[in-house]
Amino acid sequence: MAECLLFLAEGFEEVEALTPVDLLRRAGIGVKTVSVTKDHMVTGSHGIGVRADKVFDDLDQQTIEKTDMLIFPGGMPGTENLRAFEPLMELLDYFVESGKYVSAICAAPTLLGQRGHLKGKKACCYPGLEEKLEGAEVFTNACISDGNIITSRGAGCAVEFSLEIIRRLHSWDEAERISSSIVHK
User: Fold this and answer.
1) What would the pLDDT profile of 94-144 be if each residue is shown by its tens digit?
2) CB of 148 within 8 A of CB of 142?
3) d(CA 167, CA 12)
4) Per the count of CB atoms within 10 A, which of 12, 25, 130, 133 is most buried?
5) For 64-77, what is each residue's pLDDT tens digit?
6) Distance between CA 66 and CA 128 in Å, rounded?
7) What share of the chain is helix, strand, coil (3-state, %, to 5)?
């Protein structure tokens, strides 16, 4: 079974974080939420508190090595709080450089762009932040994959984003099964 880590910082966008957790778990993909604060409780941008499965300091090398994908929800100031947490940005660099999967939605694709990971890649993000996708070929698709990177535009695209992750880590058939089971489209 594939394993993912989804990172939560104060001010994360709740829909962009919880939709992937829900749909990936329905597909049998392991996903753990990880707080980048010292506390398991993290409050989203709309005041919804979520108890993370782990705090970042609990991650060990074995967990990191068995992880197939890092997932970054957007939201403000959540994205800026993720960016400010340098150990996470170093982990992001390691995953991209190792060819492991990284996915980001809304403002979070700017994390990839501003660290130089989107040069020559197709990407999308929340409208108005495109200039921060440095070196990317920018699209307005709900979600777009290019190599080991998946990007998406915002909360309204969270289901498409989650289904694309399922396609990559499980199968197209499983993504279709999940889509049908939640009466998507």
Assistant:
1) 999 999 999 999 999 999 999 999 999 999 999 999 999 999 999 999 999
2) no
3) 24
4) 12
5) 999 999 999 999 99
6) 35
7) 40, 20, 40
